[in-house]
Design brief:
6 helices, 31% helix, ADP-ribosylation fold, 182 residues
Length: 182
């Protein structure tokens, strides 16, 4: 399977496991897990996907978007769901002093007024490295990097979670915790 095919199948998995399992009549449990065998069978309606290819996509995805359970009988997306009924069982942890969020200029006015909101996702996504935030923000144009005083948020009662793939998550980031200098 070449790199282009891996990317195509990864995008398909993101669609199914994060946003629209109904597209192939796949059921996710309350924690976002799908039965691997069901996924492979039902995916045939849209894309040909083998267990070997699924393992390659999970292993090589640069953002570590997907995880198997220990037995490799279940798979799920690690975060980024737009589905409201998924509980990924995150535990709140103490963050570093600063986390970062990449965005673009056209979103700055709403952020300055309302802070960072999760919008259609379950959480606001933050990164521990500026470079990652730059990459995220650059997907939509020239990146604007926001520094988030995460440890201060934590000390003031906000919960922050660290997903299996290293993405920091929170419900929202109020304006007073955002540093707008680039």
């Amino acid at each position: 399977m070449n790199e282009r095919e891996i990317k195509r199948k990864s995008k398909f998995l993101s669609l199914i496991l994060r946003h629209n399992p109904q597209l192939i009549q796949l059921e996710l449990d309350k924690n976002g897990w799908a039965n691997v065998e069901d996924l492979l069978i039902k995916s045939k309606r849209k894309i040909n996907l083998t267990i070997d290819e699924l393992e390659i996509v999970v292993k090589t995805n640069n953002k570590k978007r997907f995880s198997f359970n220990e037995e490799k009988t279940k798979i799920r997306a690690n975060q980024g769901h737009s589905l409201k009924n998924i509980d990924l069982e995150f535990k709140a942890v103490e963050p570093p002093q600063y986390l970062y969020h990449g965005t673009v200029a056209k979103f700055m006015q709403p952020i300055k007024e309302n802070g960072l909101q999760k919008m259609s996702r379950q959480h606001v996504h933050l990164s521990s490295e500026r470079e990652t935030a730059i990459n995220v923000g650059s997907r939509r144009g020239k990146a604007v990097i926001l520094s988030i005083r995460a440890l201060e948020m934590h000390h003031n009662g906000f919960e922050l979670y660290l997903s299996d793939n290293g993405v920091w998550l929170t419900n929202n980031v109020p304006v007073e915790y955002i540093e707008f200098k680039n």
